[in-house]
TrEMBL record:
One of its GO terms (cellular component) is plasma membrane. It is a multi-pass membrane protein. It comes from Photobacterium halotolerans. The chain crosses the membrane at residues 12-39, 51-69. Keywords: Bacterial flagellum, Cell membrane, Cell projection, Cilium, Flagellum, Membrane, Transmembrane, Transmembrane helix. The gene is fliQ. This is Flagellar biosynthetic protein FliQ.
């Protein structure tokens, strides 16, 4: 296996991880910001108020983008399996 092939595989894997994490985390961060502004404006200091909306949004993001993330992983693993003979020789 040449170093270039390893770097290309590793770079693609890191990009995939970055996309998948952002798809899940960014909606939760945005809703957390909205809830924090609401809590600051109304002086409500309830810890559980910020947890439930973030949990719901994260679950919705997983339901909406789960198919895309699964498809990305399957395509990546198919490409790796197809390139095994080229990598070994």
């Amino acid at each position: 296996m040449t170093p270039e092939a390893f770097v290309e595989i590793f770079q693609e894997a890191l990009y995939m991880v970055l996309v998948m994490v952002c798809v899940i985390v960014i909606p939760g961060l945005l809703i957390g910001l909205v809830v924090a502004v609401f809590q600051a404006a109304t002086s409500i200091n309830e810890q559980t108020l910020s947890f439930l909306p973030r949990l719901v949004i994260t679950l919705v993001a997983l339901m909406v983008f789960g198919h895309m993330m699964t498809r990305m992983l399957m395509d990546y693993f198919h490409r790796i399996i197809e390139h095994i003979p080229q990598i070994l020789y």
